[in-house]
Specification:
By secondary structure, the protein is mostly beta strands. The protein folds into three domains: about 1-65, Roll (SH3 type barrels), CATH 2.30.30.30; about 65-125, Nucleic acid-binding proteins (OB fold (Dihydrolipoamide Acetyltransferase, E2P)), CATH 2.40.50; about 130-185, Beta Barrel (OB fold (Dihydrolipoamide Acetyltransferase, E2P)). The protein is built from one helix and 16 strands. The strands form three sheets. Strands 1-6-2-3-4-5 form a six-stranded antiparallel sheet, with no helix packed on it. Strands 9-8-7-10-11 form a five-stranded antiparallel sheet. The longest helix is centred in the middle third of the chain and has 4 residues, at about 95-100.
Amino acid sequence: MIASTQFKEGSIFVNENGQIVEVLTCQHHRKSQARAVVRVKLQNLDTGAIIETSYRPEDKFKEVLVEKRPKTYMYNDGNLAYFMDNATFDQAGLPTSRIGALMQFLTENMEVEGLYLNERFFNIHLPANIVMTVSETVQGIKGDTVSNVMKPAKVSTGLEVKVPLFVNEGDKIRVDTRTFKYLERFTEPKK
């Protein structure tokens, strides 16, 4: 059992509705003269749906032990996305509907974590942020590099992200896989 006060990002448990969920964010709140609450943003691992809720500190849940195995994304045929196990080289398909919006981050030969529950491959886990290449965006105006105005940009996978005006086509940017937001322009480390 896991108490709501023990939640941290990445904790996986069975919620009050019997759904297997993962904690995306967790905040402990206490206002004066009021009971403490734990506010969490959860992701249903079967459907990919995001749930925001709060729990009392004494609430306890059944913790789920999920095995994570490295996998490589191969391709998708519209209905199934295929992944290769990096240890056994076996290929397995997952319905693209189960992966949901995360499909927009997947590129061929990308390393992901395969989530296994009772030896059944049921979903994937992506890193917190991914470097992607901007494939199309409108040109920024010279001198507008200091403002916080954002413009739409499309990355190589088709995902559309709001980026600052100084980002141009061909630039590499870091995108948060949980919020789908631009984090920073990525520059290759100097050797």
